[in-house]
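A.,

Following up on our hallway conversation. C-alpha cells first:
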C-alpha cells in the first residue's frame, strides 16, 4: 500500500493550495496516475448542485514528507467534460509556451515569503517592532535570522525529490526568506514553484508556523515580498542585441502585465523599497530601483537574461510566465 497526495489550486484569488490523500492498493501505480475528483463547491470552483471537479495529474514526485514509496501528485483542474476548468491558468500558459517553443523561453523565479506565528512574522516581538531593517538580509546569528530550520528543511526536501531549486537566502525583513526555482520553461518552472510552495507550507505546519505570500505583510518601513522573475530566450542567451529589445517589449505592455503580477501590487511597488513605483516603467543595468534589471555580467557580455522585479510574492506563475513569454517572444 502506498499513498498519493493529490495537490491542486483552488478557486480563490490568489489561488490557494489544496490536497487530499488517495490510498493506492494496486502493486505499482505505473506511469499514469489515476484521474480523481473533488467537491468544487468547497473550493470556490463549483455550485453545490453540480459540484464535481476533475483532478488530472500533471506531475508526480516522491513524497518527502511521508517518505518511502509514497507520492505527491500535482494536478490541473478540469470540468467533468474534461475541458479545462475556469480556474485552470496552466492550460493558457501551455498554449503560449507551445506557440513560442522554438525561442526556448526560460524562467527563474525568486519566491519571497514571510513566516508567521501568533499573528506576526518570526523575529517580531509580542509588542512593538524589532530593530530596523539592515541586519537581516543574508544574515547569520540568532539575533538576525529567524526560521532557518524551516527554510533549510524545505531546501533539502525540494532537492531530494528533484525540484529545480537554485538557492535560498534570508531576506530584508525578519522572518522573511526566499527560494529560487529554475531556470526552466514556463509551465515547468510554474509546476515546480507550486509544488515547492506546497512543501513549504506543509513543513512550516509542523512548527505551528504559517507561510504568507502577502505582498506587503507589515505596513510601513518594512520590505514587501516579491517574486522577481528572471527571463531569457535562446537568442538572448546566445546572441548580442536582444537584451534591450526584450526590456523595450515589456515597456509596451505595462498595464496588462501589472494586472497579472499579483494581488496588492500598489501596496508593494510604492517606490520606497527597492523597485520603482508601479506607475513608472524603466530598465537599467544593475539597477534595483528599476522595474526591470539587467544584471551587470549580462550587460558586459551583451547576452544572458533580464530580471522583472515587479511580480508580487503572491503571483500565479502560470500567468506571469505566460504574459512575459507572449509579450517578449512576439516582439524579438
Ligand atoms: P538576485 O541577485 O536578484 O537576488 P537570485 O540569485 O536570487 O538573484 O536569482 C537569480 C535567478 O535567475 C534564479 O532564479 C535563476 O534560476 C535565474 N536564472 C539564471 N540564469 C537564467 C537564465 N538564463 N534565464 C532565466 N533565468 C535565469
Ligand atoms: Mn534573489
Ligand atoms: Mn529577494
Ligand atoms: Mn532579484
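Then the amino acids I'd put at each of the 332 positions:
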Amino acid at each position: 500500500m502506498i499513498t498519493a497526495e493529490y495537490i491542486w489550486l483552488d478557486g480563490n484569488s490568489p489561488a490557494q493550495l489544496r490536497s487530499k490523500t488517495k490510498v493506492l492498493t494496486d502493486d505499482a501505480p505505473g506511469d499514469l496516475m489515476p484521474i480523481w475528483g473533488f467537491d468544487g463547491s468547497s473550493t470556490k470552483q463549483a455550485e453545490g448542485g453540480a459540484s464535481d471537479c476533475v483532478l488530472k495529474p500533471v506531475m508526480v514526485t516522491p513524497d518527502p514528507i511521508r517518505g518511502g514509496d509514497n507520492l505527491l501528485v500535482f494536478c490541473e483542474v478540469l470540468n467533468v467534460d474534461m475541458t479545462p476548468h475556469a480556474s485552470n491558468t496552466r492550460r493558457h500558459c501551455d498554449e503560449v509556451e507551445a506557440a513560442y517553443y522554438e525561442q526556448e523561453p526560460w524562467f527563474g523565479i525568486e519566491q519571497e515569503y514571510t513566516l508567521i506565528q501568533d499573528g506576526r512574522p518570526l523575529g517580531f516581538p509580542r509588542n512593538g517592532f524589532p530593530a530596523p531593517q539592515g541586519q537581516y538580509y543574508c544574515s547569520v546569528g540568532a539575533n538576525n535570522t529567524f526560521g532557518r530550520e524551516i527554510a533549510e528543511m524545505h531546501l533539502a526536501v525540494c532537492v531530494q525529490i528533484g525540484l529545480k531549486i537554485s538557492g535560498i537566502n534570508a531576506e530584508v525583513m525578519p522572518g522573511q526568506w526566499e527560494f529560487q526555482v529554475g531556470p526552466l520553461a514556463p509551465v515547468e518552472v510554474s509546476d515546480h514553484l507550486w509544488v515547492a510552495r506546497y512543501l513549504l507550507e506543509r513543513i512550516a505546519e509542523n512548527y505551528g508556523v504559517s507561510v504568507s505570500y502577502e505582498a506587503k505583510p507589515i505596513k510601513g518601513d518594512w520590505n514587501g515580498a516579491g517574486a522577481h522573475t528572471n527571463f531569457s530566450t535562446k537568442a538572448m542567451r546566445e546572441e548580442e542585441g536582444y537584451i534591450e529589445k526584450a526590456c523595450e517589449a515589456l515597456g509596451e505592455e505595462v498595464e496588462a502585465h501589472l494586472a497579472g503580477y499579483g494581488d496588492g501590487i500598489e501596496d508593494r511597488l510604492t517606490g520606497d523599497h527597492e523597485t520603482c513605483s508601479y506607475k513608472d516603467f524603466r530598465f537599467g543595468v544593475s539597477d534595483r530601483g528599476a522595474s526591470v534589471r539587467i544584471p551587470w555580467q549580462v550587460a558586459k557580455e551583451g547576452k544572458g537574461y533580464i530580471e522583472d522585479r515587479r511580480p508580487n510574492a503572491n503571483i500565479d506563475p502560470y500567468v506571469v510566465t505566460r504574459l512575459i513569454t507572449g509579450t517578449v517572444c512576439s516582439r524579438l
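Residues 106-110, 166-167, 180, 182-183, 228, 230-232, 237, 304-305, 307 surround adenosine-5'-diphosphate (ligand 1) (CB under 6 Å). Curious whether your intuition agrees with the design.

B.
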